[in-house]
Amino acid sequence: MAANLTITDALIVGGGHAGLSAALTLYRGLHTCIVFDTHQPRNKWDTPVHIMPTWDDQKAEEKRKISREELLKSGLIRFVDFGIEEVSKTGNGLFRVVDTRGEAWLGRKLLLSIGSTNLFPSIGGYEENFARGIFPCMLQFGYELRGVSSAGLLAVDTLASVPHASMLAQDAYKFTDNMTVYTSANPELAHAMQNELGSYGIAVDDREIIRLMPGPSKADVTIKFQDGAEKTEGFLVHRPGTRVASKLASQLGLEITEFGDIRVSPPFCQTNIPGVYAAGDCASPMKIIPNAISMGAYAGAGIARELPRAVTGNAAC
Ligand SMILES: Cc1cc2nc3c(=O)[nH]c(=O)nc-3n(C[C@H](O)[C@H](O)[C@H](O)COP(=O)(O)OP(=O)(O)OC[C@H]3O[C@@H](n4cnc5c(N)ncnc54)[C@H](O)[C@@H]3O)c2cc1C
């Protein structure tokens, strides 16, 4: 398919919280943007949003919808609901992206706000219970779970670390009377966790976990151990690792951090490739909506300041 000849000020790949926030800042600077989006946020479970002022206990999808409506009113933002598969820098310093239909688009600047992918541990039943009975953060999910008689933390995979697991176990202990850290056949870690948390009254269990199953009610999860025993907890805590899974980062030659995120420099979220910015979950270990919105706003400001005055003053996209 032939390239769309219009050159847009900014191409935004990813229309989640970060991308929408950047588009808002850019239209306020009279710049045109195209936002490409496949509508597959990392929180695909669309659990109610917490720790986001004005949006407590509401749906993220609804927030995105309202944000889009606001942006469309400007006449400067266009939405294309297809994924971007290819990205390159042209000889004359523009960016060219190609969507899943093969349609090409040109822009002066490029923002990646593509989110990131969860890396789940290989324990059977983990993924089915994630966001139902296994929760990554108690400050987001604990309040609704308060008062359960017992809960557990899976100190496995990315959480097989004393400082990280201790912090999240102590967070969780505020919402339950009995807290157990499960180290799943890792005696060295179990010993270290016992030393760290024993005095707080948090138990450590090192039996090997072979399966996680939905329990009888609400967020219950039943843990099946290698020895055949089972135990049901009111909820489990575990934070999976994440990484930027998109091939766009490698097509552009973007630097990736040890945590699997695109490396950007604060505050304006520039990457190592001039003219390319990245914001939100894909570019920060702080993966919460307020941070994605903040990074999007800064990236929008950085892009706007690199762009010349709009040629037409106020051209519709
Ligand atoms: C279970 C769960 C619950 C959570 N609860 C909360 C909470 O209560 N409060 C909170 O603050 N945070 C919460 N978070 C974190 C929050 O969801 C993220 O921090 C936030 O969504 C990040 O926004 P983002 O725009 O960076 O990425 P995303 O919201 O993941 O959006 C990225 C967008 O980019 C699109 N995309 C990706 N690649 C392409 C491509 N090649 N072409 C076109 N489009 C593309 C995707 O389809 C998606 O729409 C939760 C996360 C999880 C997993």
UniProtKB/TrEMBL annotation:
Swiss-Prot/TrEMBL GO biological process terms: cellular response to toxic substance
Keyword Oxidoreductase (UniProt): yes
Pfam families, sorted: Pyr_redox_2
Protein name stated in the entry: FAD/NAD(P)-binding domain-containing protein
Assigned keywords, A-Z: Flavoprotein, Oxidoreductase
Family note: Belongs to the class-II pyridine nucleotide-disulfide oxidoreductase family.
Family matches, as SUPFAM superfamilies: FAD/NAD(P)-binding domain
Gene3D superfamilies linked: FAD/NAD(P)-binding domain (3.50.50.60)
Superkingdom in the source lineage: Eukaryota
GO terms of molecular function: oxidoreductase activity
Claim: Oxidoreductase is one of the keywords in the record: yes
Domain FAD/NAD(P)-binding: 9-296
